[in-house]
Design brief:
four-stranded antiparallel beta sheet; mainly beta; 223 residues
């Protein structure tokens, strides 16, 4: 389901009712469109319509995560095999944007379930997880085929959310176990520094990181 929270409003407005289907969901920048990719069907909705509804389309292939490009021009999906693809939901097809987006994946690391496109759409941050021992690997992946850069994430920092700075020169990672936010240079993967954004909460998982449009502030939300 899609809800809207107007500025200053006390209650949420139900914009689009749930299809009660399991799948991957993405909302375009500006909240103009919603996409739901399920196992057997795909759905899109025009959220600017007076009465938004889901339109059904042929099923696209399975993706571990889907994200709109920052300008909303295309929908990107990460496959379990490590391919980054542009998804045509209306036709149920996809085209490879970068093969081997995960690079040489070390043993024990699961395929990415999270990625974040750069503001200009020229690169993505991808996340890989190792559960035994628990570690997180974050990579800056240029879409033009340039070299993949590993961020030097220490073992104690396990990012659950990823973001780029507005100029695309820095990456931001945030974990929900210790409340730490890390800042990185994407050109070489060097850490700029860490700041603790919230009190420690060992039960929290998931979260989101967003920059203000002028790049002067960073918002961090945690489950």
């Amino acid at each position: 389901a899609v809800y809207r929270w107007a500025d200053g409003a006390a209650d949420l407005e139900l914009v689009l009712r749930s299809r009660q289907l399991w799948g991957k969901v993405a909302i375009a920048p500006g909240a103009a469109r919603a996409v739901l990719l399920s196992y057997q069907q795909s759905y899109t909705a025009d959220l600017s319509a007076a009465r938004p509804r889901y339109d059904r389309h042929p099923a696209a292939e399975g993706f571990s995560a889907v994200r709109f490009a920052p300008d909303g021009s295309r929908l990107l999906g990460m496959t379990l095999a490590g391919e980054l693809k542009a998804v045509d939901v209306a036709r149920g097809t996809s085209a490879v944007v970068r093969a081997g987006a995960l690079g040489d994946r070390p043993g024990g690391y699961a395929p990415s379930a999270e990625f974040a496109p750069a503001p200009g759409g020229a690169a993505v941050l991808v996340q890989l997880k190792s559960y035994n021992p628990p570690r997180v690997l974050v990579r800056h992946v240029p879409l033009d085929g340039g070299p993949i850069v590993d961020l030097r994430v220490p073992d104690w920092h396990r990012p659950a959310a990823l973001a780029y700075s507005p100029d695309g020169r820095h990456a931001v990672t945030a974990d929900t176990e210790g409340g730490w936010v890390g800042l990185w240079e994407v050109a070489g993967g060097k850490p700029v520094g860490f700041v603790r954004a919230v009190l420690e909460d060992e039960l929290a998982r998931g979260g989101q990181v967003e920059f203000a449009p002028d790049g002067r502030a960073l918002a961090v939300s945690y489950s």
